[in-house]
Amino acid sequence: MEKSQINHPLLPFTDAPDYNLFEPKLQIIKDMLRICNENIMILDYYKGEYAYVSSKEYLYCGYTENEVLKMGSAFIQKITTEDDLQFIGHVQGLFIEYIHTLPLERRSKVTLFMNHHIKDKRGSLFSVDIRLTPFLLNKEGYIWMMLGTASFSPKAQQMEAYIEISDTLERLNYSFAKKCFMPAKMETLTDKEKLILLLNSRGYTELDTANNLHISVNTVKSHKRNIYKKTHTTNFSEAFVYASMHRML
Length: 249
What we know:
It is built from 8 helices and 8 strands. Helix 5 (191-201) crosses helix 7. The chain has helices at residues 22-33, 65-71, 73-79, 82-99, 191-201, 206-213, 217-231, 236-245; strands at 39-44, 49-53, 110-119, 125-137, 143-152, 160-165, 170-175, 180-185. The chain starts with 21 loop residues before the first helix and ends with a helix.
């Protein structure tokens, strides 16, 4: 099976990076995977290949871990529709450009969130959430490796993308009309909204929640509407996943 490289033209390398730096960090990832169920890939832009893919194969669309490693970027081409593939390439290019505008000490704090569709070998489509963040930089401060995670999306939605910086409330939303990232407000939940979301995750009904917080059921419903609006979701399961992922709890 032919392998396709993962090089990116925006990432110059004057010297080979020190791969002794990679192994200890990779071991941390492997240790973490013993207690969680993440689909993880590490992209090596210097070698133009996957440096690592996890053995969790439920999002490999019928391909094995070894097949994914051998295919390289051809794997993404096989499981992604043409429209989504163009979107992914464009957004990732903008993300890399944005990272390199930041001071060196902030470049590892940036995460790209994307939602798009993938297809299995039978052609069935389903929606996934992708997160990408710099894993290792070369000595010039350019991205050497990128860490990516993938999970089933809690909702089937149209493609979207946004960038968040972990040490701030900064957020950039991708504008399909302008084909670029635009500054946006990162939503936060009030203390009462957090409590309502957490109580619901424990199985509390609206009446249970109202009695527990000494408020009316109508007030609970009002808070729920605000939660859905801030998390861009339509039910508590989606809202809890979104809020957990975006440090809103």
